[in-house]
Amino acid sequence: MKHEDYKEMIPARALSALDAADDRVLSEHLLQCVDCSRELDDWQAMVVGLAVSADPSEPSTQLRERILAQVRNEARTAVNSNVVPFAPPQRNLWSSFGSLGAIAALLVFAALLVYVVLLWQENRANVNRMALMNKEIQELRSAQDEQSKLKAIELIEMFEAPGAHIAELKATKMAPGAIAKIAYDPTGHAMLITGGLPVLPKDKQYQLWFIVPNKSPMPSKAFSTDVKGRGMVEVEVPAVAMDSGVFAITLEPMGGGSAPTGEIYLRSGI
C-alpha cells in the first residue's frame, strides 16, 4: 500500500467512519509515520471544533419518529433479502498511472532504443577506425621493409664495387659494446651502420665526423637510432678523409652542429 492510500484514510478515521480492517492497517502505519499522525491530529481537532461550535438543538418528535420508522424498515429488508458481499477491488499499480504512465513507459523505451542505436554506431565507427589503422601500419611496415631491402642491396653493391673500403669504428668508454662500420666507394659515397649505441636522450642525435690531420673536424650527417642503438645513414666521405682520415661519432644536439661538443662514442683507428 502506498503512502497516499494511508493519507486518504485519515479523514474517515477522524470521523470514525473506517471499517475495522482499514482502521487496523492505518493504526499500524501511524505508529511509524510522524507525518500522518500529525495530519490525523489536525483532522480530529477540526472535527472537534465543528462539534463544539455547532448550536445545540432538540430534534422534533416527528423527526424522531421518521428516523425510527426508517431504521425498522431497513432492518426488515435486510432480514428478508440475500445480501451478497462484494469483494474489495484490488489496487492495481499501473491503473493508477493511467495514460500518463503509458506515455512515460513509451518515452523510456524510445530513449533506450536510441541509446542502443548510438552504441551500435559508435562501435561500428571504432571497428572501422581500427581497420584503417591496421591497414596504415601494414603499409608503413611494407614501405620500411622495401626501404631496408633497397639499403641492403645498395650496401652489397658498395662492398662489391672495385676499390671499396670498409672502416670499423670501435667503442670508447662512453658506449661499451657499441659497434659501427662505414663502407665507401672510390667516389666517396658511403653507408654508415651502427649497433649497440645508448638510447638517445631527448633532443639529441648522434653525428659522424671526419678527422683529418692539421684540420678541424669536418661534420657529416646527424642521425637517430632505434631502441637497440641501431642506425643506418648515407653520407659522403670527403676526398681528404678517404685514406688518412679518422671517423668518429659523438652525441650532439638535435640536427647536429658545425663543431663537435660532446664526447666521442665510436671512432676508427683505435
Task: Jot down its keywords.
eight-stranded antiparallel β-sheet; alpha+beta; 49% helix; 270 residues; Immunoglobulin-like; 3 domains; 5 helices; 19% strand
What does this structure look like?
By secondary structure, this protein is an alpha+beta fold. The chain is about 50% helix and about 20% strand. It contains 5 helices and 8 strands, in the order αααααββββββββ. Strand 4 (about 205-210) and strand 5 (about 220-225) form a beta hairpin.
Concise summary:
This protein has 270 residues and is of the alpha+beta class. It has helices spanning 3-14, 20-30, 34-53, 61-80, 93-160, and strands spanning 165-171, 179-184, 189-195, 204-211, 218-223, 231-236, 246-253, 264-267.
